[in-house]
Amino acid sequence: MNTKDQFMTRAFKPITFGSVCAAMKAPRWLAALGLLLATAIPALAQCQLSFAAAANYATGTQPRSVAVGDFNADGRPDLAVANTVSNSMSILLGNANGTFQGAVNYAAGSGPISVAVGDFNADGRPDLAVANYNDFGVASTISIRLGNPDGTFQSRVTYGAGVGPRSTAVGDFNADGRPDLAVANEGSNNVSILLGNVNGTFQGAVNYAVGFDPWSVAVGDFNADGRPDLAVANGDNVSILAGNANGTFQAPVNYAAGSFPISIAVGDFNADGRPDLAVANNSSNNNVSILLGNANGTFQAAVNYAVGGSPSSVAVADFNADGRPDLAVANNSSNNVSILLGNVNGTFQAAFNYAAGFGPFSVAVGDFNADGRPDLAVTNFGPNTVSVLLNTGSFPAPVILQQPASQTVQAGQIAALAVTANGFGNTLTYQWRKNGVAVANGGNISGATSTTLFFTPALPGDTASYDVVVSAPTCAGGTQVTTSAAGVLGVTPSSAAQCLADLVGGDGNPPADGSVDGNDFQAFLNSFAAGC
């Protein structure tokens, strides 16, 4: 299955449309989302991965692409969905709790198949760029809808692209501070570049040849020259087009991926500061390819990882809060989403699968319930819905391995109560309590917020029941606690002999020179407190 004719015989073939944040100064609404490159969550430790069951919301007919933006400026991410058969765009405004309002539909061009978000007229409001696939072999278009402050959109303005546009991405290709568009055209085997004007309009398309059947385009600075480059998933390989300073692009350099790559995303998977590529391969091999980037803009050979059936879309985020980018893959024929957790060296763990709707096509990432964890939005071709899967990952609660041991000591002796606990990432904090009241450091007490509470020395007034509250962070930014069992410290008065030893400095003899120094005076005070 690697030819156009074979694709066209399958009426419900999955499609993916990478819409990657541009290499440009992001507007405030986009920066607030902060999840597309997996940077929104602090790297505290690895959370246990889990997602809530999918909640489904109605869209138009045959939704094939989803993008995230804050369209009504309420600080909550919303969804834009391209519906191919109903020729419409569905806008679902987000609520504070991660649910979404009913879809509001806007007319699109013929066969809208991909949607991307950008602020095209520099008014601080997200706008939409929609690729209209149209009938195969017919020159197709890109529709632009400028956003209003209330989450509605203005009438669409249409621009020509190549034949059969399947994916659109946003970037500032000529360094003028205005977002431009890159469009992958399956029918004409090229990428169209539409440079943006200051008022939200676009210049005529300039086309660059790529591989056969380009399905997805993403933006990244692969050769570290400060200029955005293009990565294009073709039906048989991946094309890299290095960007020039004036918004033009160099000839493509091609790299092998898996069989029938149709979605591509960018992330730094091995933490070397260079962008790498993740490619969803829609053949029967059912895998994603990882191509690690080199310093000069070239890429290493692809390494493949198994996912679900017919992977159609890939996105990048840090789903378990360990500071490493992970992958989310929409699998069209297995009706689920695969999550592959990243390792520090750019490899990935085996996939965890979560159910979506029937025929998932496109996956996007956003923090929909404002808990600091990236969630998923997935379009489902069959039931005409978008599924939202909220991230419920968490750190396990701290575990007490060794409880404080009860003990009895003589007044004036040193005593200590200790606890041993386990938790992810060495992020535990401690608070000792005396009869249920927090202990503070001072006087003869130290270690009140550590694993060991010291009494230097123990005094009769220290006799009490002591426990410790062990706290650890949650993945959502809160805390969870485990309280130890209580250990009882008993302090008995000192004997007469011990009192004498304390009063003369601890050795039973007065100072040789007959003098009394500060240590002797402190010993006297301690002995007095101990009941001498």
Give a written overview of the molecule:
The protein is elongated, with a radius of gyration of 31 Å. It is built from 4 helices and 39 strands. The strands form 10 sheets. Strands 30, 33, 34, 37, 38 and 39 form a 6-stranded mixed β-sheet that branches. The model is unreliable at 1-44 and 505-509 (pLDDT under 50). With 532 residues, it is mainly beta. Strand 10 (165-171) and strand 11 (180-185) form a beta hairpin. 6% of the residues lie in helices and 38% in strands. Helix 3 packs antiparallel against helix 4.
Count of helical segments? 4
Category from helices, strands and their pairing: mainly beta
How does the overall form come out from the CA principal axes? elongated
Low-confidence runs: 1-44, 505-509
Please state roughly what percent of the residues sit in beta strands, choosing from under 5%, 5-15%, 15-25%, 25-35%, 35-45% or over 45%. Answer: 35-45%
Helix content: under 10%
N-end to C-end Cα span: 93 Å
Largest sheet data: 6 strands, mixed
Care to count the β-strands?
39
| Spatial extent as radius of gyration | 31 Å
Q: Give me the oligomer status.
A: single chain
Give the overall average pLDDT.
87
